């Protein structure tokens, strides 16, 4: 089970940051930055994570930096958010690091199944591990900070205990690593956005989906899917990216404010409102009539982990064509997670 790491509220963290950083110089020219993301305003990523982060920047800059948040893909589809930041269509963009298969092969390792057990500390480890690689793999943007989404599991129309139970099913996959896992299990993975996946469930296009707990209910997919595997199967890696030119135009004091919000400390703080919201969804499903939330034996979990090891082996082989030492890269990630007691 995932560890729920207790943290101070984001507001308190923002106040502490303000004391450490101090306001930007009163003479700084006021700038307005656009922050884009893919989820609706009803999702805690918007109101619990990104909006408080943006307000903290505005406060610490003495009002010289204003950030306007554009939710729900207003500036472009979720898969385009790296390009939105790179090209300056958005000054800041929330990006799902595994949404474009093959584009960023190194960071894809962060989404291996059965990898992260603690969202907060795992996010710190993710940011720290990726920093040296980001300078090369995502060189045309400023990788501000990174964090995990809190994880998800499999929700289905029937009880699934072993990977072999997936054979013949059409299942929505959240990322390429999960898709490879499902393919090895004999399932047919389907890549869909969260909202499209929920609609596909209603139309009977898919038999199961990989989803977090509360989002499942928020989008209504729980009407058709009543079996829920109580096992943290995957976590999505995410990043806040900044356009390099937008950053370069800031004053020295304003850059200090941005830098104070683009670090491992914020990586650890940011995901918790999102994680806690999803855990509320799990608690609700445990009590919901007609729904079965079930655990599996250690032996069964071992079957899932063995399949995940095969996914890792295949990934290591695939990245060799890019002259990447996959075993070294993944080993470094595991070591960093262990350092923070965040490994699965």
Automatic annotation (TrEMBL):
InterPro entries: DctP_fam, TRAP_DctP_sf. The keyword Signal applies. Keywords: Signal. Residues 1-26 form the signal peptide. GO terms for biological process: transmembrane transport. This is TRAP-type C4-dicarboxylate transport system substrate-binding protein. The keyword Transport does not apply.
């Amino acid at each position: 089970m995932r560890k729920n790491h207790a943290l101070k509220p984001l507001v308190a963290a923002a106040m502490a940051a303000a004391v450490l950083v101090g306001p930007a110089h009163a003479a700084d020219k006021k700038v307005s930055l656009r922050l884009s993301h893919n989820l609706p305003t009803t999702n805690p990523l918007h109101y619990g994570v990104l909006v408080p982060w943006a307000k903290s920047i505005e406060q610490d800059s003495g009002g010289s930096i204003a950030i306007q948040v554009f939710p729900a893909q207003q500036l472009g589809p979720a898969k385009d958010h790296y390009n939105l930041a790179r090209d300056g269509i958005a000054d800041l963009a929330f990006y799902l690091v595994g949404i474009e298969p093959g584009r960023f092969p190194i960071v894809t390792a962060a989404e291996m199944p059965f990898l992260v057990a603690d969202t907060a500390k795992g996010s710190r480890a993710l940011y720290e591990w990726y920093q040296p690689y980001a300078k090369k793999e995502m060189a045309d943007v400023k990788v501000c900070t990174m964090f995990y989404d809190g994880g998800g599991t499999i929700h289905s129309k029937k009880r699934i205990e072993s990977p072999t139970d997936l054979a013949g099913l059409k299942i929505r996959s959240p990322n390429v690593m999960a898709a490879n896992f499902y393919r090895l299990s004999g399932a047919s993975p389907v890549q869909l956005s969260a909202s499209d996946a929920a609609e596909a469930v209603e139309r009977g296009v898919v038999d199961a989906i990989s989803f977090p707990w509360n989002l499942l209910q928020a989008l209504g997919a729980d009407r058709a899917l009543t079996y829920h595997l109580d096992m943290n199967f995957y976590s999505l890696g995410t990043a806040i990216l900044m356009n390099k030119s937008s950053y370069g135009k800031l004053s020295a004091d304003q850059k200090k404010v941005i830098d104070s919000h683009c670090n491992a400390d914020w990586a650890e703080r940011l995901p918790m409102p999102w994680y806690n919201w999803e855990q509320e969804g799990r608690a609700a499903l445990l009590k919901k009539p007609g729904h079965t939330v079930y655990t599996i034996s250690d032996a069964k979990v071992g079957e899932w982990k063995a399949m995940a090891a095969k996914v890792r082996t295949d990934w290591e082989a695939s990245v060799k064509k890019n002259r990447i030492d996959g075993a070294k890269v993944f080993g470094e990630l595991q070591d960093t997670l262990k350092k923070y007691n965040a490994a699965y």
